[in-house]
Recover the amino acids of this structure.
């Protein structure tokens, strides 16, 4: 079992309150997943070919003691780029004035003990092991600002409780997915993608869907086309909530085994596994509430 | 948080006290005629397992399994209901003013479930004798393996309606996207028209019973057919 939450703000004036509005949503899904949680937040897009990478230095005090300034100096030196870093304990957002791919490759070859959680020009990504409330406090989720976000609370069923297996999953740039359910053919998808040079980090079923959809979009499909192909190839149970730099998207499998509910007002679109995570949103009593239909693509743009 | 008026008891469960509410409903309630539940906010298992002829008003949206296993009580949900509303109901009546999520009335043995809005997938799955009236549409695989009871759908039915039906009977006013294995349309008899009229009256809908079609089991799956080659 897992919980998903998503929030997209329609009015720019609300963007400084994105984290504050989301916080009860994420904590409200603790009953559906209390072993790990994660949050992808999309901010205003960086300009002038600057990009950012969300980095994670490992759990506990060892990770929190990581020498981020040392890493920054190495990146500046090794990649010969302008770079800056914003640190929250064992998490940091590294901003570079360079293409992301080259920095990722350099990090992989030269730095050990740091995972790249996401990369792009708008996405910041946090995930960790612990209860949603603890993780939200650890990374000050209540203070997050941005246009939209995608969050997840995990109750592990098919792989271990680790940061690697926590959601959201990312691939490419400014793309993330969270999953409630279980795919029965992730290995089949993986055998299709790996010969194309697509590398996997872990063994969670969700990563296969994440990389499949990202691959389709890199091949020129728009998100809707990619999801239509996904309906053909994904076997199993899924409610997927996805984020791109300007969109939230939501789909459910043909049996709609895993729950989802949407609340929409003039101010926001909020998505959660259950209404109890939406109950405390402002003016939710007057929101348009609906359950997304199976095999139907729902998407909302900022 | 509990408060009392002369004939009713009000539980505000904003503080998460569903268990206190249910313990009250399961105990000796004395002269209480009516229990009001404020701020349900999608909490699970509100008013499950009630075995008393009282009225319960849930003033908002309920989460999973609201009014499950109900006996004798009349439960009104002012908002939407989560998965499994009135599952395994034995008697009484449950009314949902908004929409109901998946598996509404699953395996209910008796009583009446009224959903004024739409119902999700698998409405009335494994129904065992209760009646369900849905004001709007029902989702895919509704009445799957339903054994007894009646389902009236005033709107449309999605894919595979009545798959592997036993003796339950379905009445649909709108479009049926597809019938499931072994389900078939059958002519409406006078008894069917009377049954639909009675259920619509009980549920408070004013449709013409003549506008409904009957779906029941063709009973071709009742016996093993070695020649079917697993194709149904």
């Amino acid at each position: 079992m897992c919980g998903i939450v998503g929030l997209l703000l329609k009015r720019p004036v609300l963007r400084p309150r994105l984290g504050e509005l989301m916080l009860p949503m994420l904590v409200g899904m603790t009953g559906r997943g209390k072993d790990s949680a994660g949050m992808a937040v999309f901010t205003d897009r960086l300009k002038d070919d600057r990009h950012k990478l969300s980095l994670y230095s490992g759990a506990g005090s060892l990770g929190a003691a990581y020498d981020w300034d040392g890493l920054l100096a190495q990146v500046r030196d090794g990649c010969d780029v302008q770079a800056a870093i914003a640190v929250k304990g064992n998490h940091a957002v590294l901003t570079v004035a360079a293409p992301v791919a080259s920095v990722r490759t350099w990090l992989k070859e030269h730095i050990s003990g740091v995972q790249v959680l996401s990369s792009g020009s708008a996405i910041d990504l946090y995930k960790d092991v612990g209860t949603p409330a603890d993780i939200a406090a650890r990374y000050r989720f209540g203070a997050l600002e941005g246009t939209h976000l995608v969050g997840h609370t995990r109750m592990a069923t098919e792989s271990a409780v680790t940061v690697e297996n926590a959601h959201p999953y990312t691939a490419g740039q400014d793309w993330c997915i969270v999953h409630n359910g279980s795919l029965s053919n992730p290995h089949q998808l993986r055998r299709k993608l790996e010969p194309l040079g697509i590398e996997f980090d872990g063994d969670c079923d969700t990563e296969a869907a994440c990389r499949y959809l990202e691959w389709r979009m890199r091949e020129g499909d728009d998100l809707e086309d990619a999801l239509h192909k996904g309906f053909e190839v994904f076997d199993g149970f899924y409610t997927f909530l996805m984020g791109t730099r300007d969109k939230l998207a939501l789909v459910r499998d043909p049996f709609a085994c895993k729950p989802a509910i949407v609340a929409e007002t003039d101010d926001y679109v909020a998505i959660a596994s259950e209404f109890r995570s939406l109950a405390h949103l402002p003016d939710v009593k007057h929101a348009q509430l609906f359950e997304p239909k199976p095999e139907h693509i729902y998407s909302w743009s900022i | 948080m509990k408060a009392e008026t002369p004939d009713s008891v009000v539980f505000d469960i904003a503080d998460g006290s569903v268990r206190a509410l249910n313990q009250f409903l399961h105990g000796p309630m004395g002269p209480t005629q009516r229990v009001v539940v404020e701020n349900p906010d999608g909490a699970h298992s509100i008013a499950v397992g009630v075995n008393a002829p009282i009225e319960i008003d849930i003033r908002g949206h309920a989460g999973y399994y609201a009014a499950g296993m109900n006996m004798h009580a009349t439960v009104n949900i002012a908002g939407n209901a989560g998965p499994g509303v009135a599952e395994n109901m034995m008697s009484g009546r449950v009314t949902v003013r908004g929409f109901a999520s998946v598996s509404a009335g699953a395996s209910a043995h008796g009583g009446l479930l009224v959903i004024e809005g739409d119902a999700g997938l698998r409405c009335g799955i494994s129904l065992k004798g209760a009646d369900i009236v849905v004001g709007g549409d029902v989702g895919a695989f509704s009445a799957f393996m339903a054994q007894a009871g009646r389902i009236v759908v005033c709107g449309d039915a999605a894919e595979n309606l009545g798959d592997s039906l036993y003796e339950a009977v379905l009445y649909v006013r709108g479009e049926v996207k597809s019938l499931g294995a072994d389900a078939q349309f059958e002519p409406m008899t006078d008894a069917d028209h009377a049954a639909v009229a009675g259920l619509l009256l009980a549920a408070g809908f004013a449709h013409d019973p003549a506008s409904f079609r009957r779906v029941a089991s063709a009973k071709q799956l009742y016996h093993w057919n070695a020649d079917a080659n697993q194709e149904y």
About this structure: Chain B touches chain A through 19 residues (CB under 8 Å). The first helix of chain B runs from residue 18 to 26. The longest strand of chain B covers residues 128-134. The mean pLDDT of chain B is 96.
